[in-house]
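User: Could you walk me through two proteins back to back? I'd like the raw sequence and the structure tokens for each, with a short line separating them so I can tell where one ends and the next begins.

Assistant: Of course. Protein one, sequence then structure:
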Amino acid sequence: MFKPLNRHLLIEKVEKDSTPEEKSLVLLPDDYEVKSQFGLYQVVGHAPDCEKIDESFMGCGIVVEESMVKEITVHKQRYYLILENYIYGVT
């Protein structure tokens, strides 16, 4: 298991609902996807030096800016990290 340090949170992407989308009146490529500036993630770990995040946040949903999420690969395992001060809110 990867252990985050330096005020980082270990997070997992929360899959969005597969609700039917409305048909567009504009023709777009099949693989075109509108990306949101913000994403919903779940807290799965935190650095011991986090000031605002503690054990009570484990499993909580957080809203973050997608561009601030860092993806790293260690031993062929993918992890997502974000600094604690980049959290916009908790769900």
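----
Protein two, same layout:
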Amino acid sequence: MDASRTFVEIARRNAAEAGVTIDFRLGDASSLPFGDGSFDFILCRAAFKNFARPLRALEEFERVLKPAARALILDLRGDASNEAIGQAVEEMHVGAVNGLVTKLTFRFMLLKRAFTRAQMEQFAAQIKFASVEIRQNLIGMEVMLRHAG
């Protein structure tokens, strides 16, 4: 599911070319069009920072997960330091110009919208998840949520 019609169309086209049957949908994570307890696992990659209503999205994740199922959020962390950004970009092995553009993009665009660990803990504490596990790396964060059922 994606909020971008273009991304959904690209995904559908790529899946068709690969001969894979997947149900890609246009939608909003804060209003999932699925019944309660529909999923064993939810993966939210590089999107959570863009959600207009992140707490509502987590409520929806909890609603559509089966008992004891998990959701994994992989995204940037809003408190990444300039040094961490520099190190992460160096590890990408891009040229000097691309490196500078990438650093500026992270600092002034992508990370501006990203949440911190403390914010993610606050969001998760308001939902009835059985457990919340957060791991951080240089500029990213992995948030594993387990349904209480």
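The two ends are 24 Å apart (CA to CA).

Let me know if you want the two compared in more detail.
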